[in-house]
Write a structure and sequence with these properties.
This protein is an alpha+beta fold and 192 residues long. It has two domains: 14-127, Alpha-Beta Complex (50s Ribosomal Protein L17, Chain: A), CATH 3.90.1030.10; 160-192, no CATH class. It contains six helices and five strands; from the N terminus they run αβαααββααββ. The strands form two sheets. Strands 1-3-2 form a three-stranded antiparallel beta sheet, covered by helices on one side. Strands 4-5 form a two-stranded antiparallel ribbon. The termini are far apart.
Length: 192
C-alpha cells in the first residue's frame, strides 16, 4: 500500500523533477523571489529549506571538513556552484536566528493562457516577524482560552433558581418549572 508516501510528482519523471527542483532552487537562491505555479512552489519549499538548513549548519560548524561536507551535499542537489556559493558565503548568516520557515508562498491570480494557479515564493529573512495579528482576533482567542471551570465557579456562588417556561395549551396557560439536575424540586407545576 502507498499510505504516507505522498511526494510532489508534478506529472514528470524522477530525473525531470530533480532537474526542475534544482533549477527552481538555484533561481530562488540567486534572486530571492521567483514566480511559478502553485504546485511547483509547494514542491520547492521543502527542497530549498533543507538546503538552507545545510547552509546554517555549515555556518555554525567549527570544523572546516564539516563545512565542506555540507557544501558538497548542497551542490549535489542544486548542481549550481554559484548559487550554492552565494547561499553559503553571503546569505547563511541571515538565517541563523530563524528555526525554520525560510520561504514564504503568496498565491496570485490564475495564468491567462491555461488558468494554472500561480504563486510567488520568496526567501524570508531571519529578522522578519511576519504579519502582525489583529487585536480583535487575539481577544477572541483569549476569551476562548479561559478555563471552563472559572465560569462554573462564578455560577456556583449565585443561588440557583428554577427556570419558568410558559406553555399555551388550548387557551390555558401552563407554567413549567425546570430544575437543574442537582436540585430536588418537583419537575412540573400547573397553575391557571
Amino acid at each position: 500500500m502507498r499510505h504516507g508516501k505522498h511526494r510532489f510528482l508534478l506529472g514528470c519523471t524522477k530525473e525531470h523533477r530533480e532537474a526542475l527542483m534544482a533549477n527552481l532552487a538555484s533561481a530562488l537562491l540567486r534572486h530571492g523571489k521567483i514566480e511559478t505555479t502553485l504546485a511547483k512552489a509547494k514542491a520547492l519549499r521543502p527542497f530549498v529549506e533543507k538546503i538552507i538548513t545545510m547552509a546554517k549548519k555549515a555556518h555554525l560548524a567549527e570544523d572546516s571538513a564539516q563545512k565542506l561536507h555540507y557544501r558538497r551535499l548542497a551542490i549535489a542537489r542544486i548542481k549550481d556552484e554559484d548559487a550554492v556559493a552565494t547561499l553559503f558565503n553571503d546569505r547563511a548568516s541571515e538565517f541563523i536566528k530563524r528555526n525554520g520557515g525560510f520561504s514564504r508562498i503568496y498565491k496570485l491570480m490564475p495564468r491567462t493562457g491555461d488558468a494554472a494557479k500561480m504563486a510567488i515564493i520568496e526567501l524570508v529573512l531571519g529578522d522578519d516577524v511576519g504579519y502582525a495579528k489583529s487585536k480583535k482576533r487575539n481577544a477572541a482567542k483569549a476569551k476562548k482560552s479561559t478555563p471552563p471551570n472559572a465560569e462554573k465557579a462564578k455560577e456556583s456562588t449565585s443561588p440557583k433558581r428554577p427556570k419558568r417556561k410558559q406553555k399555551v395549551v388550548a387557551g390555558t396557560v401552563e407554567a413549567e418549572t425546570t430544575t437543574t439536575p442537582d436540585q430536588s424540586m418537583p419537575e412540573t407545576a400547573t397553575t391557571e
